[in-house]
Amino acid sequence: MLKFTCPYCGIVASETELSAGGEAHLKRYGPGASDEDFEEYLFLRKNPKGVHLERWRHAMGCGKWFLAARHTATLEVFGTYPAQSHEPPTEILEKIRAKYPEALR
Ligand SMILES: [Zn+2]
């Protein structure tokens, strides 16, 4: 079973206590954006068999959104971090690069 440590309350929560929120770090473009940029923001998502950065909500706990780095095939979790982050913390990136150097390019 998939388990994440909530970065806010520190509880190790199983998948059944969480709500998935899709891909993390989506770039939202400004009012002058092209139709292609807006389409990408609204509809186009990565769906890798491999390392993925995702949004999750601790629905049955503190209720806060957080971000997680995990492998979609092995369910290996590299870490969780606050939803306000623009990119994963360095220690999470180092864990990912050590095991999957080709990921997140
Ligand atoms: Zn929590």
Describe this entry's structure for a reader.
- The chain is an alpha+beta fold and 105 residues long.
- The protein has one domain: 2-Layer Sandwich (Folate-binding fold).
- Helices cover 17% and strands 30% of the residues.
- It has two helices and six strands, in the order βββαβββα.
- The chain has helices spanning 35-42, 90-99, and strands at residues 3-5, 12-14, 19-23, 51-57, 65-71, 77-82.
- The strands form two sheets. A four-stranded antiparallel β-sheet has the order 3-4-5-6, with helices on one face. Strands 1-2 form a two-stranded antiparallel ribbon.
- β4 and β5 form a beta hairpin.
- The longest helix is centred in the last third of the chain and has 10 residues, at 90-99.
- It is globular.
- The two termini are 27 Å apart.
- The mean pLDDT is 95.
- Residues 6, 8-9, 11, 58, 61-62, 64 line the site of zinc ion.
Chart the SSEs and their pairings.
Elements: E1 3-5, E2 12-14, E3 19-23, H1 35-42, E4 51-57, E5 65-71, E6 77-82, H2 90-99
Antiparallel strand pairs: 1-2, 3-4, 4-5, 5-6
This protein binds zinc ion (ZN).
- In total, how many domains does the architecture comprise? 1
Specify the helix fraction band: 10-25%
CATH superfamily: Folate-binding superfamily
- Could you spell the SSE succession in H and E letters? EEEHEEEH
Described by the principal axes of the CA atoms, the overall outline is: globular
Count of distinct strands: 6
InterPro entries: SoxD, SoxD_sf
GO molecular function, one term: sarcosine oxidase activity
Organism: Vannielia litorea
Protein name: Sarcosine oxidase subunit delta
